[in-house]
Amino acid sequence: MAKSKILIVEDEWIIANDIKSSLKDLGYNVVAVAATGQESIDQAMSRKPDLVLMDIVLQGDIDGIEAAKHIMKALDVPVVYLTAYTDDEVLKQAKKSGAYGYLVKPFKDREMQATIEMALYKHQMERKLKQSESRLFTTLKSINDAVISTDKKGLVTFMNPLAQSLTGYKTVSVKGKYLQEIFNIKSEEPELIDTTLEDIILNGLAIEQAKYLLYSKGNKRVHIELSSAPISDDKDNISGLVIIFREITKRIAIEKKLLDYQKQLQSLTSTLSLFEENEKRRIATELHDCVGQTLALSKIKLGLLNKSAPTPELKSSIKEILQLIEQTIKETRTLTFELSPPILYELGLNQAVQWLIDQFREKHGLSVVLKNDGVDKPFDNNVRFFLFQAIRELLFNIIKHAQATNVIITMSGNNNNLRITVEDNGVGFTKPSVNHDGFGLFNIRERMNHINGTFEIESNTGRGTIVTLVAPFKAEKNIHEKELI
Prior knowledge:
This protein has 485 residues and is α/β, with parallel strands linked by helices. The chain folds into 4 domains: 5-141, Rossmann fold, CATH 3.40.50; 143-247, PAS domain (Beta-Lactamase, 2-Layer Sandwich); 254-339; 342-484, Histidine kinase-like ATPase, C-terminal domain (Heat Shock Protein 90), CATH 3.30.565.10. It is built from 16 helices and 16 strands. Strands 7-6-11-10-9-8 form a 6-stranded antiparallel β-sheet, with helices on both faces. The chain is elongated. Residues 139-143, 432-436 and 475-485 have low confidence and may be disordered.
């Protein structure tokens, strides 16, 4: 498999070379390093990279965002921004430019690799999606409309060739017959389920692009999209009806494929998250079992050595080393919990959420109250991990954006579902976040959909926000096992 070609745009020579070295170690092909916006454009045009790592702040007349816009427009290549700033306005401009992500300096190699791979994959999927949409558009554009007209009594007056082909009737044989005799349709839309052809004819209903099943002369079923409108005279008297329809069987098949693609992307997102969590758990276990145990043993041995030290100076040095080891043990334990809290898997979701609340109260001074029914939450590890991550993500959002002083988390379960609400007294959204534009909220929504759960947000400016998660205790059988295959 060919290595992905990366163009680095960074005006700090030392940082650029460090990134270049890391990329090469990760197996990428660095085609060039540029220091200015214009140079990045020139290099991109000549080198044709698969992805551009673009520093936002560059020397010269063209900054990173402008250069990225030019490159993406000319080459349709994904751009990932590099920035040392997290200013909201800068990030807003970067988001509008159509970039595929950003990395905040300093960043780790694994973080950079994950961002690059996600950007490349997203770009590939978007390209396929655009191709599918283009094929769909071309297909629809090339299909002629079928047309049938009637008089005010519903007697057929005209059928064009395509209408004859779809219904199986010739105009000469049906002219003067009631439309119901040759046009047998059944609605596929709930709001039109009780709307019959007689209603359309007698009441002169105007219908736009409604989906129906058409049963032709040979009882062949055809999916159609139908629009109807009454034919009125200059005094608004209905003198007939015109029906325009087109076969959409191919379109429905394409829509199904697009839906399958969406489900595959959801599954991929979940799989990547689970792989990431499993890797974190592995690292946390290594830290605890190897590093932690080694440090603890070193502390014991130094303690014994300290007792037999012949001089006060040596005792003092050993004591300093013991203090450093003790501090390292604490930091290792903290890192282990931040990577993957063992309490989540050993004691369950209830205790893990309480631990999380204690951490936010201690580190951020946020007053969080947990109202828990105390009932066991029978989830597998994967769902339990996701719900824990969702609550943590919501708390981080509150810290960063809500300006809240109090948060109430309520966890209550019944025989089928766990209902979690996270309510804050912050500033709320300036408008209801119906589309969940932020990546964190988007990720939560997609994961909830994937486990057949729901995700809702209620918010008013100045009145706080309520986020509700509902997760089924019994998710679709083996859903997570399938993800990992």
